[in-house]
Amino acid sequence: MSSYDTIIIGAGHNGMVCACYLARRGQKVLLLEAANEIGGLAAKREFFPEFQVSVAHSISHFSAKVAKELNLESHGFINPSCSLPTVGLNRNGEHVVLAHDEGGAASLSGVSEKDLASFKNYQTLMYRYAAMLKPFWGTVLPRIGVSGISKAMTYAKLGLKLRLLGKSDMREFMRIAMLPARDLMDEYFDNDLLKALLSWDALIGSKMAPRSPNGPVVSLLYRMGGDFEGAHYLPENGIESLIYSLRSVAEASGVETRTNFPVEKILIQRNESGLKVEGVTMPDGEIITATRVVSSADPHRTFIDLVGVENLEIQFANRIRRLRSEGYVAKLHLALHGEPKFNGLAGPEGRMIIAPTMDTIEFAYDDAKYGEFSRQPVMEVIVPTRYQSELAPPGKHVISAHVMYVPKMLKSKWSVDAREEIKNKTIDLLAQYSPGLKNLIAHAEFLTPEDIESNFRVTGGNWHHADHVIDQMFMMRPTYEAAQYSTPVPGLFLCGAGCHPGGDLMGAAGHNAAHEILKS
Amino acid sequence: MPSTIIQDINQHNFHEVLKPTPFHPRVDHDCLTKNWMDWNGYLTARTYDTLAAEYFAIRSSCSVMDLTPMGKYRINGPDANKFLNRLVTRDVSMLRPQRVSYVVMCNDEGKVLDDATIFHLNEGDYRLCCQHHQLDWLMISSLGMDVSIKEETHDIAALAVQGPTSASALKLAGIDEIGQLKPYDILHTQLHGFEVMVSRTGYTGDLGYELWTSPDNALSMWDAIFEVKQKGFYDIRTIGLSALEMVRIEAGFILPGDDFNTAETAIRADRVRSPYEVGLGWVVNLDKPNFTGKRALLDEKKKPIKRRLLRLEVSGNKAPQDSFLYAGKGGKRIGTIMTQIWSPILKANLAMADVEFAGGSQPSEIWAEIYYQKELEWRVSWAKGKVWNKPFWSHPRRSASPPDSY
User: Fold this and answer.
1) B178 near B190, Cβ under 8 Å?
2) Looking at domain B304-390, which of 3.40.50.300, 3.40.250.10, 3.90.1300.10, 2.40.30.110 is its CATH number?
3) Residue B8 scores a pLDDT above 70
């Protein structure tokens, strides 16, 4: 039996970021990963012999502060010179393309002069709001009702930032922050493809569609806080370079990492002085002790499965249970014999979005929210081999697509046949934009939310661990009493996507958690 | 881990505004006043004939009350004990089979949802009885536990048999082992060939028992008890909720929902009460590793208490109904009378009073401002209150074992 200062459950990027910060401050840290490989949903996996891909296929807002403080660049995580263009695919090749040049200036093509002018206004305003919120993603948002100068200051700063927008912009922010994506887009634009493309990042990963209320614009602003103002990018050495650089920093800082090490239970001492985390137990009964345990697993898995409801109070446990964390995004991976051609595109460049109109997205969602397959799915497609040829044998390619909306709770229950059905449907749709695609396919893998749940141990197969909706964000994420990284169980902390600020490859949750732990 | 919730909604007949209990034919026969009220959706007698006679039946002879509307939940399964220990503030892990424990349930904020009694019927098999419906809360509490919860309010007919001669009367009715029961004991036995469960429990502060059986046997159980009266051995009287209210206040028992707002029904943040504030600190076991409300109660314990539900005897002969309470005659307002009765046995006005404790201490003086009518003319008077730390009325026969035979 050995003892650690901190055991971190889960070697996804947040768990690793947290481990690095704690180890660099002298803590003896043990990082436990249930899978064979570190990296969680960002781990590169071979889905067909010699073809590799990761579930997370692009980055929009990895924390620049974390990258700098951990010096990730010198460990191989290097920002590209330019972000990926976002392409609203049109079947006839009349695409809408939103791109940024090396200086960061945006260019939009395929839309009317009027939309172009509106886009400038839209972008200016949204960037102001994104910039206003940006500092708060990397800050611990204090518990409401807790007094203290520094805590009050955090909210005072937020208020001040809001006020500094000026009266009209502030008013406008208050108005649009809670708008459904549809209303915002309809106010600004005419072009259906453009509207669908711009609302995509407000919705993906959550149980939300263009007409959903509950703060999709906040979710969009969250993503717009990135280095390329929200435009997605691929680091120079691929997504895995983020994971490998974190591994390298972790090793250099003395973090001990063990893979293939699934935690069975968080060990909790129960006696007359209350509860106290003692460590973790493994399936074979082995006990590893530590002063504290930090979980980057999702809140449901952490509290309900690993802690157990008997150690939680009734309403708290129920709030964790009621978290909306049902996944609606599936993943399609295609191993291709050659480069896919898309109508009207010189090459399969950038992040291609198949969502002709916002109604298409809405209808796809309507089917899925009642547990059915979408009549016409919508998706985001990247050809990672275009940027990283080593992911496939020479001349061969990989397609990676996020497919919405695919319900975790399929009414007819998931089966091999059901998976085949939706896989083929998705490929058929993709082939409408890329004729000849089917002849190139060597292998197709389709990961339903249920597959993502079981393969990656994420409740609901939800990448965000809990939907990015306003009642599950900020000082309410995942729920009050656990939203400041500490939890009702002394010695247990959270550091995953289920905490403020949320999911995607960002690292802020791991950073904020470490900050809070080091303070306590 | 699955939890099973069983509630048979088909039992509700929508033609009935209030549901008659299985004893209804007898209750209806005895109830001369037809003064009905609603208790948990059941047709319940407020009084049967005269309140004074009913009251004195409890205090001087033997009373019978229909307890069927009491919320009753059967709890069993591998996690039953774990489930209960997280639900209530008291440690029930040591509750032996055939024993009963008085408990209180709090929410996460440590505010009282209800009080209850847990009957450990047989190893691992429990019945929770409470004043109000609690199935929702039990369902929420059971998520993630391997426990089965069955609503059995409609499936168990129950009578409270209370008073000095209750043991003797029940013995004559055919329960030979009645004398062996110590307070809070449970006995499974036969009465005239059917199964009854007898517990030495009650809400009167006197010697008394509660009898539980299946609805099919309800009338036979009733008749077996009243046969003792018909044979002329003991007087036995049916009593309604009004008489019960008198004796429960005398005995110092609280009534959630009347003496204070239960946490689930309170809308205003200051209307909820902790166990300490309603005098139930003695059922809070802070040495238990955890239970729902523990963290909040630990915090509360560190601070001076803000208010207390007090047993207040109010001088004079005027009923301090709904009276405001003041620190002195015409002084600062510090509280309210919640419930009150005239006690025939003590010849005094007795009340449950919600009183603020400035700086954590009990006010040195408490005065009630009493509005009363003289020939439809309203008048006001002041009466001084006296705080009772113990129940207003208690008698050694409540816990004498074996019970005295009268």
Assistant:
1) no
2) 2.40.30.110
3) no
Of A17, A38, A19, give the one whose Cα is nearest residue A30. Answer: A19
Q: Do you find a cis peptide bond into A384, omega within 30 degrees of 0?
A: no
Q: What is the pTM of this model?
A: 0.93
| A460 phi-psi bin (left φ>0, alpha ψ -120 to 50, beta other) | left
Query: Would you place residue A273 in the very low, low, confident or very high pLDDT band (cuts 50, 70, 90)?
Result: confident
The predicted pLDDT at position A1 comes to 47
| Mean pLDDT value of segment A436-443 | 97
User: What pLDDT band is residue B2 in, cutting at 50, 70 and 90?
Assistant: low
- Write down the CATH number for the domain with range B1-303: 3.30.1360.120
- Whole-angstrom Cα distance, residue B213 to residue B15? 26
Question: Could you give the CA distance from residue B394 to residue B398 in angstroms, rounded to a whole number?
Answer: 8
Tokens 């009466």 correspond to what residue? B383
Same fold, B1-303 and B304-390: no
Counting beta carbons within 10 angstroms of the beta carbon of residue A364, is it exposed (0 to 12), middle (13 to 18) or buried (19 or more)? buried
CATH number of A3-42+238-324+458-519: 3.50.50.60
Q: What are the extents of the domains in chain A?
A: 3-42+238-324+458-519, 86-223, 329-407+411-447
Q: How far apart are CA A467 and CA A483, in angstroms?
A: 15
**What residues in B contact A311, CB-CB < 8 Å?**
290
Assigned token pair, A137: 């993603």
Q: Least CB-CB distance to A309: which of B145, B291, B298? A: B145
Q: Is B77 on the interface with A (CB under 8 A)?
A: no
Identify whether the C-beta of residue A511 lies closer than 8 Å to the C-beta of residue A17.
yes
Give B-chain residues touching A308 at CB under 8 angstroms. 144
CA B113/CA A223 separation, integer angstroms:
43
Q: Is the pLDDT of residue A163 over 60?
A: yes
Closest residue to B143, CB basis, from A270, A311, A317: A317
Say yes or no for a CB contact (<8 Å) between A309 and B143. yes
Q: What is the pLDDT of residues B238-285, one digit of tens each?
A: 999 999 999 999 999 999 999 999 999 999 989 999 999 999 999 999
> Does any CB of chain A come closer than 8 Å to the CB of residue B288?
yes
| Domain spans of chain B, in order of start | 1-303, 304-390
Of A275, A304, A318, the CB nearest to B290: A275
The interface pTM score, or ipTM, of the predicted complex is 0.90
Contact residues for B362 (Cβ-Cβ < 8 A; gap 6+): B308, B310, B355, B387
**What mean pLDDT comes out for the span B224-231?**
97
* Set of chain A residues whose Cβ sits within 8 Å of the Cβ of B140: 314-315, 318
